[in-house]
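Support reply, case 0932

Customer input (verbatim):
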Amino acid sequence: METSAIREEELKNRVAAVFFGKYDCTRIIGNIDFCVSPKRRDPRQMTFIPDTPILWAEAKNHPTDIYRMLAQLILTIGRAGRPRPAEAARPEAAPYQMDEPPRFVGCFDNEKIAFVEYHYILPIFNLNDFNWTQTPSAVDDKTVGIVRGVIPQDKIFVFHFGSDDSEIKAFIARNFTSGDSPALATPIDRNNFTFIYQKWRSEVMPHIDAPWDVLKKKYALYDRDFFLAEMNVDDNGTPEVADDRPAEDFYITFDASAREPYTIRRKNEDELNFNLMFGFKPGGLDAYAAFWRRYKRPPKREYWDFIVSRLDLLVPQDVRERKGSFFTPAIWVEKSQSYIAAALGESWQDEYYVWDCAGGTGNLEVGLTNKYRVWVSTLDQQDVDVIHERIKNGANLLESHVFRFDFLNDSFDKLPEDLRDVINDSEERKRLVIYINPPYAEHSNRKVIVGTGENRTNVAKESLVYKEFSRIVGTATRELYIQFFLRIFKELHGATLASFSTMKFVCSQNCNKFRKYWKADFKGGFICPADTFDNVSGSFPIAFTIWHLDGSSEICGVSVEVIDRTSNLLGTRKFHSSISGEMISDWLRRYYDMHSDVTLAYMSLPGVSMQQRASLFITSKPTESDVKQHKVAQITPSNLIPFTVYLSVRHCIALTWENNKDEFCYPTNNWFSDDEFKCDCLIFALFDNVIKSRDGVNHWIPFTEEEVGAKSCFKSHFMSDFINGRAGRPRPAEAARPEAAPYQAELDFAETSGTTGTRESADASQLSRLSQLSRPARAVMDAGRELWRYYHAQPGANPNASYYDIRAHFQGCRPNGTMNATSADATYSALLANLRSAHKALAAQIEPKAYEYGFLKR
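Our regenerated output:
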């Protein structure tokens, strides 16, 4: 086959025609260059349909290294199937498989073609540090080296076009399943068993009525044991392959005909003395049957033995996220080492020892020059094996210095002798640098809070470090990286810690006890965007900080340099340490009012950090759950001002990756005498709420009927009266109506000023009237008035409509109740744009006072 000068598409067409004429090469799966599937005749339709693929391949029209092409193919498979953040909790959102995998992967250029069985690339998808963030076309040498270390060279079948054409055809004839097969069930083999397991977790496992946590802790049985039990039977439910794994004390058998088909048995004892049985939830048997109609079981004996030998691959797809390991991009590896050099001196690599005790596949060690002074340990033996292979291919490390070690559980007695000598010598230990990017997993995360993720309690709570320190430093031990910090501080005192991490240990309230225990001298550092790291989609800072661990100073805050995603210096930023009792929530609690006869609305009560701003809102109908858990507070006429100040200072500042972890503080008293500030905050909050008139009387209309041309009277005039200084006194038209009771005799909200116990109060007359509003606040009111007027000119306008109701009227809502983002009404859209522009300008006026009055620290 002549291929010396040929375009890539023509090359693929020619390879398909010459070697794969009996197969279907027309399928397009994601961005994979070349796919081969058998043609199967469907006996019911008498048409050809594509079957499970046989080959996925990377194609190049110029001579290219085989491992580089395979690395590009692996990245293509992995990146295309990685779940978006909203899908991350879905078991079926596989992180590296877009479709049922083929038997072979391969590659070809205009000189050669290569094949390797798919199962040889499987370990790569479970590596902690494989860099999925790079594009396949720009694959780096380190990634190629990892692929070279994982796939044995003798398992790659390489043929050259022209001289080996007959051998290529013979290889395909021997190893590729021929077409026209009428069987519809897919056999289980060494290439597809992980894919089938992941599908089983999604489609069958949720229907099994079993206590998973108890089985794991008491019997060391996992969901994969249930999967193996189901897989190891024929269509009649009879086991055909002996499950002769010797190590397990307990095992599971499966009998589909039984009422409770799963039976846990104890090995080497009479079954009559021990027998636990589990069944399906309602509808589960149907789900089980539907699933296994698609796959032919049991697998052949040779495949069963292989599957049992690789049980490490039968793990949930989110295992990498739950382990918390993130690939460190080369840009930050280089940057971090320059900061270490600035802190310890240009010759630090020859004067200090380095131990990466969370090493993964050795990513941080790129750039380290003195291999005799560097040790790398990691939790997974598989990662150790990868580094050893990389050493054979030129990585600048010593094999004897790379070893498996569970830093949160293992004794230092297991360390290599030369590293123990450094640790045990107090003077030598002063020249030890712990250089790490530890896991960031914690007890729970946002996915758990919003109900889309799996609780990760055991990730942190199973370690010996957690058990030792949880009573000393409290909830901070839920963070795995803080567990690393704690053991390093206790057992490697005097060393230098140079670590990537979040900034929670510096600024979070949950780390108050940690900071009292963990005393160290800060030597420098930087922050960069978290989403530049693999498997991280959040908008928050990841920091690299350097600490001398013989200090006696409690962390009160640190100043770090801010680096953007392209390594440009943006300036410096200070992270302040939060102190319990001095947060904005403590301040707001002073104004809780549970005795008023008038409830204007309710305010949600999230945490105090900037990242929780989206959970802060004003509503007229809180959920019963929030009320029971005291996650809301009443807004009444007497606390309206401090509550709208609270919302405005927290919403006026845009959330960025830099300020994500900032926490709001107990302010000074100066805000109280600033009437313009208070009015700005009130007006801001009037157009930043989710009040709905259907949930009760709408007290949040800032205008009168005459101003907006309402066709009938409002049920409440509270807000317009309040703004204009009339609250507490009936309006003239209502004076004769007995039901027009004043909202209150006095608007009273207190703030300690000078002497403890002194109270300051304000009635409505102390508020700036409409004529005294700031220019930005007046602009918001003017724009809002025009929007209300346009709405009340519409047929059937609700006289008591809220800001939310008006937007929902013009924009409409989806069936799930979510408001559409836009409206077809051009006039409305222009009015809304004007209001939002004015509201944004008002936010800009409030923002500097949020810092001036101490709600936030600079």
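We compared this against your earlier run and they match. Two observations from our side: The chain has a mean pLDDT of 84. The first strand starts at residue 23 and ends at 24. Please reopen the case if you see a mismatch on your end.
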